[in-house]
TrEMBL record:
Cross-referenced InterPro entries: His_PPase_superfam, Phosphogly_mut1
A single GO molecular function term of this UniProt record: intramolecular phosphotransferase activity
Lineage, highest ranks first: Eukaryota, Fungi, Dikarya, Basidiomycota, Pucciniomycotina
Signal sequence annotation: none
Protein name: Uncharacterized protein
């Protein structure tokens, strides 16, 4: 992972800390065979938050809508805060599923690191904000 990516991950961790985010679980895309940039970013962010001890699930199935429906959504419905760290394609897939839009709408819309925050109400409706690593708002819905 390049130095710029590490710095962006550190900035993202600081932004999450400043905004007082706390997570109950982290989910990361990848396999156990390599330490991916997503894994390095997750480690940097969790260190900034002082949350190195939360449960981390690593999966290669983040693109699958069923993974969101069966694994992530139930955690959110229980009121848990879930941190998902992945490359653009799995994130775009999750976003398209949540928002009922095409994957293409979300691909390539941000730099290396973006903080995409969904806030769900009890009816399952959401507000979404995308921040750059320094905490500046890129877009909201």
């Amino acid at each position: 992972m390049k130095l710029e990516g590490r710095q962006q991950a550190a900035d993202a961790g600081e932004t999450l800390q400043e905004k007082r985010f706390r997570f109950d679980q982290a989910i990361i895309s990848g396999t156990d065979f390599i330490q991916s940039p997503a894994q390095i970013s997750l480690d940097i962010v969790l260190t900034a938050l002082g949350q190195e001890d939360i449960t981390i699930t690593k999966t290669s199935k983040l693109r699958a809508r069923s993974y969101y429906d069966n694994r992530i959504k139930p955690l959110v419905q229980e009121g848990k805060n879930v941190l998902v760290v992945a490359h653009t394609n799995p994130i775009a897939s999750i976003m398209s599923h949540i928002e009922g839009q095409s994957v293409e709408k979300f691909e390539g819309k941000w730099e290396n690191v973006a903080l995409i925050v969904y806030d769900f109400n009890s009816a399952g409706q959401f507000k979404r904000a995308i921040y750059d690593p320094k905490g500046d708002v890129i877009t909201t819905v």
